[in-house]
Amino acid sequence: QVQLVESGGDLVQTGGSLRLSCAASGFTLSSYHMNWLRQAPGRGLEWVAAIASDSRDLYYIDSVKGRFAISRDNAKNMLYLQMNGLNPEDTAIYYCAQGWKYDYWGQGTQVTVSS
Predict the structure, then answer these.
(1) Which of 67, 72, 75, 104 fits as disulfide partner to 85, beta carbons 3.0 to 4.6 Å?
(2) pLDDT of residue 80
(3) What confidence score (pLDDT) does residue 10 get?
């Protein structure tokens, strides 16, 4: 069955960096557009970034442009999110999700940025 497992979340200080990973199994990663989403405490789900199946097209929400970088390694069935210049507004649970309609999600990984 489809499985997405996020990792890499942690507590960091403002200005710090983290690299999130998402291990995919049960489907052919190279066939799917993939996303990172996040949910901050008391707030709704927010789309953060997306990457085309062949990595040619990358998309970001304005608030993370220039700070975050989405990437993938289809051979390893892995999706990544490099996050630099973190600030407290980035505190959230981060999820990877499959496809244009987020058909499958992982359990999430917690990112906490202290001021």
Answers:
(1) 67
(2) 98
(3) 98
Whole-number pLDDT of residue 98: 97
pLDDT at 40: 97
Q: For residues 100 and 80, give the distance between their C-alpha atoms in angstroms, rounded to a whole number.
A: 17
Residues of the chain with pLDDT under 50: none
State CA 25 to chain mean position distance: 16
Which pair of tokens denotes residue 90? 């980035």
Cα angle value 4/68/71 (rounded, 5°): 50
Question: Looking up tokens 């710090």, which residue turns up?
Answer: 16
Contact predicate 27/2, CB 8 Å: yes
Q: Give the per-residue SS3 of 30-92.
A: HHCCEEEEEECCCCCEEEEEEECCCCCCEEECHHHCCCEEEEEEHHHCEEEEEECCCCHHHCE
User: How long a stretch of residues is the chain?
Assistant: 115
Taking CA atoms, 108 is separated from 39, 75, 92, in Å, by 9, 22, 9
